[in-house]
Amino acid sequence: MPRSNRPRRGGHAANREVEDSELQRALYGTLRTESRRGVLWNVQPVSGSSAVKSYVCPGCGLEVPPGQQHTVAWRADGIMGEAADVSARRHWHNHCWKVS
After folding, report:
1. Rounded mean pLDDT of 48-73?
2. Confidence of residue 96 (pLDDT cuts 50, 70, 90)
């Protein structure tokens, strides 16, 4: 029986993982780790088009309005586990995060 040249449904798992990570990076920005005052933080920029809710910046106490570029940060070394760290993430103005 001749071989089929059509791609099979689903493709390779490795290719799907790469596509998923590229899509996530395009939608949410690049996740990086930073150290501030001896604490490790996961930091992720949020584009204006992805910012759909209003938040209060912990740096200045003012609103981060929908549609404004900002930074999301949460502890990378918390003792309560990753789920607790992610649930405690905060949305900062870019400037406030830089000067904190």
Report:
1. 96
2. very high
Longest dimension (CA), the chain: 69
pTM score, two decimals?
0.70
User: Over the chain, what HEC string results?
Assistant: CCCCCCCCCCCCHHHHHHHHHHHHHHHHCCCEEEEECCEEEEEEEECCCCCCCCEECCCCCCEECCCCCEEEEEECCCCCCHHHHHHCCEEECHHHHHHC
Note every long-range contact of 71-75, with CB atoms under 8 Å and residues 24 or more positions apart, other chains counting. Answer: 71/43, 71/44, 71/45, 71/46, 71/97, 72/43, 72/44, 72/45, 72/46, 73/34, 73/41, 73/42, 73/43, 73/44, 73/97, 74/41, 74/42, 75/39, 75/40, 75/41, 75/42
